[in-house]
Design a protein that fits this description.
binds glyoxylic acid, binds manganese (II) ion, Alpha-Beta Plaits, 16 strands
Length: 411
């Protein structure tokens, strides 16, 4: 059987049911990693997978694997999945689509009584977003051997006093399975594009050839706290004024490498954050991305040079930590070709595309042949409660995922 379809209504209904967990007033979701709501979403997913006849395993960092057996139990699984955690003001589709598209693949195969050669596993990776615990793509990173288990369990909560390990235990998802270290025949991840290209060009499927590289930094500027009413302007060592100039420099660096560079300061903390005390300390984060590693390196040098110059002129000190890095990641040609063929066979308008976002697929690509399927989202908006996608596009992407998975699972 080739060129199979999936049940778009069932996929949509599951997405909407998951979206009720952590629903926000503007129609989005807040299901932060390892929160009670994340646990509720995980339990719903597990219930659905068990009802679909899958065996569920949870590893030591909370990654979930739902396995549909194949004819040949000795073959490594073809894996698909994504994440259920969201940004603080996240949408209903980022990550969730890849997980529930995987479940829809399993349900469709069950409906057809279709036995694949290799087993199929649907994965939920812990803390993909990197919002509550940083960096991002943590569960898949441990699976791929990029991060250690213990260092990950010790990661602090960006919004509170707990650690990743404490919260994982508290919500009941500290599993026993070892993390990674087992073969994966192929990994596919379906995701909304999170940018405007597919929608602008009227394409239904993005054949993802690569993901751009990222560099994350943590920067602390230290000046001197003093009285807002009595400290003359010429005597100030204002950490916030210096940080503001650095934020502006980050934006300038983003603009200086068009058309592909992007540069963001997304989090900033001012200390002591009192309106009549000159700020003595500012902490902020920087997120740089580019599809070419050499350009990312130039941006890195520019950031450090600019920040040091600004600090010196403002008579403050600056401490720059290289917090996280991954290079631009090409996906496996054979699998990418298979995604393109599946889109063609379904008669779907498609184009090759580079992922602007980070995905668990980036780390899976270190340990298994990997590819991704993108579908459009409304206005290219994501990491926003108003994130939206069309049922027909989600269904089409899921059908492409199914057929690409089958090509590998039966090869
Ligand atoms: C993940 O959501 C990212 O920041 O790309
Ligand atoms: Mn995502
Ligand atoms: Mn995201």
């Amino acid at each position: 059987m080739r060129n199979l379809k999936v049940d778009g209504d069932r996929l949509w209904a599951s997405l909407m049911e998951m979206a009720r967990i952590g629903a926000t007033p503007k129609g989005g979701n807040c299901r932060l990693a390892l929160s009670d709501l994340d646990a509720e979403g995980r339990r719903l997913f597990i219930r659905w997978c068990e009802e679909a006849g899958c065996t569920v395993t949870v590893d030591r960092v909370g990654n979930i694997f739902a396995r549909r057996p194949g004819r040949n139990p000795d073959l490594p699984p073809v894996m698909t999945g994504s994440h259920l955690d969201t940004q603080p003001t996240g949408g209903r589709f980022d990550g969730v689509y890849g997980v529930l598209a995987g479940l829809e693949v399993v349900r469709t195969l069950n409906d057809l009584g279709y036995e694949t050669e290799a087993p199929i596993e649907v994965a939920v990776w812990t803390n993909e977003e990197g919002a509550r615990f940083s960096p991002a793509m943590m569960g898949s990173g441990v699976f791929a051997g990029i991060f250690g288990v213990d260092e990950t369990l010790a990661k602090p909560d960006n919004f509170g006093p707990a650690t990743f390990g404490e919260e994982l235990r508290r919500i009941g998802f500290a599993g026993e399975a070892p993390v990674g270290g087992r073969p994966v025949k192929a990994y596919f991840e379906a995701h909304i594009e999170q940018g405007p290209i597919l929608e602008d060009e009227g394409k239904t499927i993005g054949v993802v050839t690569a993901a751009q590289g990222q560099r994350w930094y943590e920067i602390t500027v230290t000046g001197q706290e003093s009285h807002a009413g009595t400290t003359p302007m010429r005597k100030r060592q204002d950490a916030l004024v210096a940080a503001a100039r650095m934020v502006e420099a980050v934006n300038r660096i983003g603009h200086a490498h068009p058309p592909d560079a992007v540069a963001t300061v997304g989090a900033l903390q001012v200390s002591p954050n009192s309106r009549n005390t000159i700020p003595g300390r500012v902490f902020f984060t920087v997120d740089f991305r580019h599809p070419v590693d050499a350009t990312l390196s130039i941006m890195d040098e520019e950031l450090k040079r600019e920040c040091r110059g600004i600090a010196e002129a403002a008579r403050v000190t600056v401490d720059i930590t290289d917090f996280w890095y991954f290079p631009p990641t090409p996906f496996e040609k054979r699998l990418v070709d298979s995604v393109r063929s599946a889109a063609k066979a379904q008669g779907l308008p498609h184009r090759d595309i580079i992922s602007g976002a980070g995905h668990d697929a980036v780390y899976l690509a270190r340990v298994a042949p990997t590819a991704m399927v993108f579908v459009p989202c409304k206005g290219g908006i994501s990491h926003n409660e108003i994130e939206d996608a069309k049922k027909e596009d989600l269904e089409a992407g899921c059908a492409v995922l199914l057929n690409a998975i089958l090509a590998e699972a039966n090869a």
